[in-house]
Amino acid sequence: MTRTLVLVRHGQSEWNLKNLFTGWKDPDLTDKGIEEARIAGHRLKEYGLHFGTAFTSELYRAQRTLSILLEELGQPHIPTVRDAALNERDYGDLSGLNKDDARAKWGEEQVLLWRRSYDIAPPGGESLKDTGARVWPFYIHRILPKVLSGDNVVVAAHGNSLRALVMALEGMSPADIVAEEISTGIPIVYRLNADSTVAEKTVLSH
What we know:
The chain has helices at residues 14-17, 31-46, 60-73, 99-106, 108-116, 128-148, 159-170, 174-178, and strands at 4-9, 53-56, 80-82, 153-157, 188-192, 198-203. The chain is α/β, with parallel strands linked by helices. It has one domain (4-203): Phosphoglycerate mutase-like (Rossmann fold, 3-Layer(aba) Sandwich). Helix 2 (31-46) crosses helix 3 (60-73), helix 4 (99-106) packs across helix 5 (108-116) and helix 6 (128-148) packs across helix 7 (159-170). The longest helix has 21 residues, at 128-148. The protein is globular, with a radius of gyration of 16 Å.
């Protein structure tokens, strides 16, 4: 299988479990998150994938997910690039707050706008559009050339940085991407055409 790109959102983090806005904060994985990463690696192994390069963010939960996944695949030492361009969106003033407390303070509608809209940023933070503005150039200049050269590439990152990538890969509109959810620990396998468009997409659900 050539020109294959796999996207994996990190396993459940301690702050996912506590229902907190995480953003650029750096909690570890829960036991469930560790297991999700193991299962993701197992699924990719069953699928017969071997990777030449890995990319991840500067945040520990994504790095640890990648490490566990590659260990499970028997490929723990492949070249790995860590870059803040793949970090989760910065939730600004919401970071560390319980989502229910935020709704009580600002109202359900406002918090939903901050969480799910394309171009409305929370106070002091980034919108999905802002996140895309750093993810897309990194993808074009660093990740895509590897994939198009025939390398199989895995990216372990975050819900919103991956939503921005999926938006670009699948040609989604801002309206489409609002409803797109990326589950923790579920690999999404894309096979690309030579012109970088998507030939095939497979979700390796548990």
